[in-house]
Write a structure and sequence with these properties.
Layout (H helix, E strand, L loop, with lengths): L9 H13 L1 H9 L10 E6 L4 E6 L2 E2 L1 H5 L4 H4 L3 E6 L8 E4 H17 L7 E5 L4 H13 L2 E4 L6 H11 L3 E5 L2 E3 L2 E3 L1 H9 L7 E5 L13 E3 H10 L10 E2 L3 E7 L7 E6 H15 L7 E4 L6 H13 L3 E5 L10 H9 L3 E4 L1 H8 L16 E5 L5 H11 L6 E4 L33 E4 L11 E7 L9 E2 L3 H9 L6 E9 L5 E6 L3 E4 L2 E4 H9 L4 E11 L3 E10 L6 H15 L8 E4 L13 H9 L15 H8 L3
Parallel strand pairs: 4-17, 6-7, 6-8, 7-14, 8-11, 11-12, 16-17, 16-18, 18-19, 19-20, 29-30
Antiparallel strand pairs: 1-2, 3-13, 4-5, 9-10, 14-15, 15-23, 21-22, 22-24, 24-25, 26-27, 28-29
Helix pairs in contact: 1-2, 5-6, 5-9, 7-8, 10-11, 13-14
The structure holds 5'-O-[(S)-butoxy(hydroxy)phosphoryl]adenosine.
5'-O-[(S)-butoxy(hydroxy)phosphoryl]adenosine binds next to helix 11, strand 20, strand 24 and strand 25.
Length: 637
């Protein structure tokens, strides 16, 4: 497969960028012409950021699964589409060619249909990183059902919230999942969630760990039994449903600054074009490359750069079930050598954690197949960048620092591997089609270079979110109302003397813990559920490995007598309500919280205290009771 839209020189980048700004419709029409359409579009772009209403390729009919599977069969049906590395390196790996994957997706699409799933239905997928997860996602896309993948680390309560919000009547899960030395009982978590969700009609359960599960009559069915039924029907084909360009493809929940996670909605055509285009350009994918993105498919990175982008580009994508440190901290390197991986895409937190093990785990590893390294999810510090570049890439592989968000569908700001220059800790330049700008608090544009401000984008790109599920007003409020006519990212940003962008982190009440987005309000709500808790305030602080850690200030009336037991109780509560990923790293019991006279908690002060930066607490005179600050400072942990 060749990619007519691949940019292979700095000059070509400049030219593409210019064209994408001067005549976006012509630029994207040309890119889109290398996909398979059941019917061509009537209009490339229609938009306003006020409602917002954004529509790409309106009038077109297509199916992303046809682009990810069927279109590759005539030319490279026998090429590996998916390589699966199991959690246990001693277990058998699996390789599915495009033909295999196509067959299995059609088969499972028929399973979905047999179980009553129809176009437009919402299907929640809660599974570990197994090939069947990819098959389930693609099968939903094939029949036009809207998937909502929930990361395996979320709690029953989080799943229930998501099921209710999306009114999802179908669930796909597995008995359990392996992650390192842990076995996670996924089906039992689903059972707990479904107590609150009587509207769920079917649960399809894959066998993975053989942990005992309870199956409810009429509701729960085994994946394997359902496949057998399709086999006895003679494995009929399942043609890809003709989808409108703007039909929803999936919902993915993500945290914001307010309490409840929101369901970001991406649609069929624009998302397909954007993920494929960015995959091919950012990583400079070459037809025989093996691409290894270490994210989980439960996050947007996995959706876009394990599944849709690579498969639509006809690439070979690697799915890894386990964790980077099990059985030892050399696991990534073993995988790279075993499959001769060419592109490695991971998170700064993983790099920092592996750095902590020193160079030992790298000894004896060749890593000679690597051509491109990528990072995503949070700012990468220079030390981690250099370690990655020198010790993993042996100074031969360009590092792409890719900045983007769940809402953006794919990468917006990044260097193109080996094509445009890299600069440690900088995402560098916008991709064609992306028009970033920095604004001050009042929304006034900050022009020129060597400046910093809040990062906004002023023109739509094909992969931008269209709405938040069931609540369009929330989408408007969150992203398009802070600064009129601009998409606001929530990130702070600096533009250097050469116009390179460096993302400095969130400017709202959203934390980035190990590359996972967590709202402070969400964690506070969970902490406050504990009977002994009167009130709490959560802030982030600098953490060597996680990037940010979670620091909770808690007013506690419980009387365990033992503070550590109380801390464990609270941590347990958060784990139950949200999931282990939101557990506070530090809990400090306090008598009061710093509040303004109007009762607002001054997090600015708490953030400084959590950082140990007592000298720069700023003005505390507007506080209702300035004394609480002294008390909190003394009790800092
Ligand atoms: C937030 C989005 C994009 C997939 C993974 C996270 C931060 C992301 C970078 C980067 C600095 C980054 C931002 C952004 N972020 N990539 N290369 N450099 N910060 O997706 O969960 O939607 O989080 O992650 O703060 O807003 P997400």
């Amino acid at each position: 497969m060749s990619y007519p839209f691949q940019i292979t020189s700095r000059e070509a980048y400049d030219e593409a960028y210019k064209k994408s700004v001067q005549d976006p419709e012509a630029y994207w029409a040309e890119v889109a012409s290398s996909f398979v359409w059941q019917k061509k579009w009537d209009k490339v772009l229609d938009w306003n950021f006020m409602d917002p209403k954004i529509s790409w390729f309106e009038g077109a009919k297509l199916n992303i699964s046809e682009n990810c599977l069927d279109r590759h069969l005539p030319t490279h049906g026998d090429k590996p589409a998916l390589i699966w590395e199991p959690n246990d390196p001693e277990d058998h790996h699996r390789i599915l060619t495009y033909r295999d994957l196509h067959f299995k997706v059609e088969q499972f699409s028929n399973v979905l249909k047999n179980n009553g799933v129809k176009k437009g239905d919402r299907v929640c997928i809660y599974m570990g990183m197994v090939p069947e997860l990819a098959i389930a996602v693609l099968a939903c896309a094939r029949i036009g059902a809207i998937h909502s993948v929930v990361f395996g680390g979320f709690s029953a309560q989080s799943i229930a919230d998501r099921l209710i919000d999306a009114q999802a009547e179908f669930v796909i899960s597995s008995d359990g999942a392996y992650r390192g030395n842990k076995e996670i009982p996924l089906k039992s978590v689903i059972d707990d969630a479904l107590v609150q969700c009587r509207f769920v009609k079917k649960v399809i359960v894959l066998t993975r760990t053989r942990i005992p599960v309870s199956m409810i009559k009429g509701r729960d069915v085994w994946w394997e039994d359902e496949i057998k039924k399709v086999e006895t029907q003679g494995n009929p084909p399942c043609p890809a449903e003709a989808m409108d360009a703007e039909d929803p493809l999936f919902i993915l929940y993500t945290s914001g600054s307010t309490g409840k996670p929101k369901g970001v909605v991406h649609t069929c055509a624009g998302y397909m074009v954007w993920t494929t285009y960015t995959f091919v350009n950012v990583f400079q994918y070459q037809p025989d490359d093996i691409h290894f993105c270490t994210a989980d498919i439960g996050w947007i990175t996995g959706h876009s750069y394990i599944l849709y982008g690579p498969l639509s580009a006809g690439a070979t994508t690697l799915i890894f079930e386990g964790v980077p440190t099990w059985p030892d901290a050399g696991r990534f390197w073993d995988i790279v050598d075993k499959y001769r991986v060419n592109i490695l895409y991971t998170a700064p937190t993983a790099i920092r954690s592996l750095m902590g093990f020193g160079l030992g785990p790298l000894q004896g590893k060749h890593l000679t197949s690597l051509k491109v390294l990528g990072t995503v999810g949070e700012p990468i510090n220079e030390e981690a960048w250099h370690w990655y570049y020198e010790h993993v890439g042996k100074k031969k592989c360009p590092v792409v620092d890719t900045w983007w968000q769940t809402e953006t569908g794919g990468v917006l700001i990044s260097n193109l591997a080996g094509v445009t220059p890299a600069k440690p800790s900088y995402a560098t330049l916008p991709l064609p089609g992306i028009q970033p700008l920095l604004v001050d608090e009042n929304g006034k544009e900050i022009e020129g270079n060597n400046v910093s401000g809040n990062l906004c984008i002023k023109f739509p790109w094909p992969g931008i979110l269209r709405t938040t599920y069931g609540d369009h007003e929330r989408c408007r409020q969150n992203y398009f109302a802070t600064y009129p006519n601009l998409y606001f990212t929530g990130d702070g940003c600096l533009r250097d003397e050469n116009g390179f962008y460096r993302i400095t982190g969130r400017v709202d009440d959203v934390l980035n813990v190990s590359g996972h987005r967590i709202g402070t309000a969400e964690v506070e709500n969970a902490i406050n559920m504990h009977t002994g808790v009167v009130e709490s305030a959560v802030v982030g602080y600098t953490h060597d490995v996680k990037g940010q850690g979670i620091y909770a200030f808690v007013i506690y009336s419980g009387n365990h007598g033992d503070e550590n037991l109380s801390r464990q109780d609270i941590t347990q509560t958060v784990s139950r309500i949200i999931g282990p990923l939101a557990k506070p790293d530090k809990i400090q019991f306090v008598k009061g919280l710093p509040k303004t006279r109007s009762g607002k908690i001054m997090r600015r002060i708490l953030r400084k205290i959590a950082e140990g930066d007592f000298a720069n607490l700023g003005d505390t005179s507007t506080l209702l009771d300035p004394n609480v600050v002294e008390e909190i400072k003394e009790g800092k942990i």
